[in-house]
Amino acid sequence: MYDLPPDLNRLRVLEQQLTIWIGHVRAAIAAAEQAERERRQGEARQSPTPDWIVELGIGQGAPPSEVHAGYCHAAGKRRRVIDRDQALRMLADGIRACAHCRPDTVLGVL
Q1: How many helices and strands (H and E) does the chain possess?
Q2: DSSP E strand stretches across 1-110
């Protein structure tokens, strides 16, 4: 049937070792479940991706320097969420459009 030892003492030792391993496996499962719960909670708390953002420059008043689509990977850390009308107005006022996400093309600005 199975390749198990025939005597009771060795079977008891094997049972004890397996019980210890089951404890380790259950602890690992509990830790993985906790990590999954925390990941889901983090995703639920995360704000949705904005449609448009403006990257802000350095200096007094942090002037706008570049318009990006909300998902753009090239946007810097200094940024502010803007709406569609603000994005159109900024592009019309000469604020640079990102060369990666091309908000001017998406918004239909020539």
Answers
A1: 3, 4
A2: 52-56, 64-69, 79-82, 96-97
Residue 96 β-bridge partners? 66
pLDDT tens, position by position, 18-72: 999 999 999 999 999 999 999 999 888 877 889 999 999 887 888 899 999 999 9
Angle among Cα 89, 93, 94 to the nearest 5 degrees reads 125
Q: How are beta strands 64-69 and 96-97 bridged, if at all? A: parallel
Instruction: Give the span between the Cα atoms of 54 and 66, in whole angstroms.
Output: 6
Mean residue pLDDT across the chain: 91
Q: How would you list the strands of the sheet with 96-97, edge to edge?
A: 79-82, 52-56, 64-69, 96-97
Is residue 42 exposed (0-12), middle (13-18) or buried (19+ Cβ within 10 Å)? exposed
